[in-house]
Amino acid sequence: MVAFWASALAVVSPLLAQDSSSPLPEHLILLSRAKQHMRQVLVRQPNYTCQMSIERSRRRNPRRGFELVDQLRLEVALIDGKEIFSWPGARKFDDRELRDMVGGTSSTGSFALHARAVFFGNVPRFTYLGPRPSESGGLTHHWRFDVPQNLSGYMLRVADRTGGAQQAVVGYHGEFAIDAATLDLVSLSYAAEEIPPHLEIQSTSDTITYERIAIGPERFLLPTSSDLVITDTEGTANRNRTRFHNCRQYAGESTLIFDEPPAEGAPPPTAPVPIPALPAGLSLEGGLDEKAAHPVVVGSPIRITLTKAARMKGHTYLPKGAVIHGRLLRSGTLPARSPLTFYTLVFEQIESGGVFAEAPIRLDDVLPPQMGTTRQMLLDFEPGERTPLPGHFTIGITGNRPELRKGLRLMLSIASPAKP
Residue 101, CB half-sphere, CA atoms under 13 Å: how many? Predict the structure, then answer.
């Protein structure tokens, strides 16, 4: 599998001096007003977070339609001008790059950075394209912009089949539309130029739409959708359709408490018991709480409840009923003598008595290996990867029920810490 990533950064250069003796054309005055308005809009944006739903699809032949590859659910936040991501329901935002979380085709910048690159920098060269009627019945003004490679912050990165990566900063051009009445940004599109041949990318394009969204008592101009298409030199097009929704102000230091306050005279609550350090080799046996079927939503949480206490050398480290939390990273089918459906999982943390602890968890086996006409097994490879990625485990299922059934018994253990 060849994975593509795209990211953008704002680049600022000094203003060019202009001759003030001659009057400016109306379209330049309009552009100046629009840029000033958008700068004020973007500066006023609070730190906020939205849910991010992505449909990734692929088209191998231009004469055919796109076929769904997978679906992703993520949280994305704009914090002090930086985009950060997490899986839904995670207790904190991840410090990894988006490409390291989801693999495949991904991009950053659509949430906030591309608009800042256009309206805060003085690098783009603007060309007025004129007014056009909008879908709402109003009027929009359109501009083209061009950013040369030597002043660009737009990076393309390609993971090759050997496990390495190639990357390059490229120039780009695009177009944006401004509402004539409000000067709000309506849409922004961009495409890469002069892509180096070694990246094996023929073209990239992305279109982002914007609307006023309520966050608390105010309405802020935020992205609502993005449509990214990256086509390789063999003609295969990878498309990501992203929808941003359920936006709210980010309050990273807040704690929400929903319990009733204790009655007067009631004894103080018992302090939670911390989870002890878990030794490498500690065996964990549990059952899957809910079933999952192909195709899965990438990032969907899974829970494995321990069916017996985890003991080692006479010491009980985890009680029966403790929960292992994980994620479904992908699912798919592979051609074989008997068609095989696979599910790739990752395990994140353990919960016991309301206390959470991170631990390196390894999947050792799936029991029972035979279930009627359905056979399930732990695979020693990860489809699409030369070697299984660290912390990734893949279960293969054949037969007439190719799903991860509720109650599926998993044999796990605490792995040795990774060497630095």
Answer: 25
Contacts of 92 (CB under 8 A, 6+ apart): 86
Q: What does each C-alpha distance from 337 to 115, 155, 293, 340, 341 come to in angstroms?
A: 51, 42, 21, 9, 12
pLDDT digit string (tens) for 154-209? 888 887 666 567 888 999 999 999 999 999 999 999 999 999 998 889 999 999 99
Neighbouring CB atoms inside 10 A of 296's CB total 22
The CA distance from 60 to 13, in Å, is 41
Cα(56)–Cα(377) distance, rounded to whole angstroms?
Answer: 27
Residue 298's contacts (CB-CB under 8 Å, 6 or more residues apart) are 70, 71, 72, 73, 102, 328, 329, 330
Residue tagged 């309009």 (tokens): 30
The alpha-carbon radius of gyration of the chain (Å, integer) is: 26
Structure tokens at 371: 């279930």
* CA contacts within 13 A on the Cβ side of 256: 4
Q: Is the confidence at residue 117, as pLDDT, over 90?
A: no
Cα separation, 212 vs 224, whole angstroms: 9
Select from 205, 210, 236 the least CA-distant residue to 107: 205
Going by pLDDT thresholds of 50, 70 and 90, the confidence category of residue 255 is: very low
**Rounded Cα distance, 233 and 169, in Å:** 18
Distance CA 114, CA 206 (A): 10
The domain limits of the chain are 3-10+26-249, 283-414
pLDDT tens column, 72-114: 888 888 887 778 888 877 777 877 777 677 666 666 656 667 8
CATH architecture of the domain formed by 283-414: Beta Barrel (2.40)
| Secondary structure letter of residue 150 according to DSSP | G
> Do residues 402 and 358 make contact, with C-beta atoms less than 8 angstroms apart?
no
Helices (H), 63-193: 98-102, 113-120
Question: With the C-alpha atoms ordered 98, 99, 102, 105, is the resulting torsion angle positive or negative?
Answer: positive
**How far apart are alpha carbons 240 and 110 in whole angstroms?**
12
pLDDT value, residue 48: 85
CATH topology of domain 3-10+26-249: outer membrane lipoprotein receptor (LolB), chain A (2.50.20)
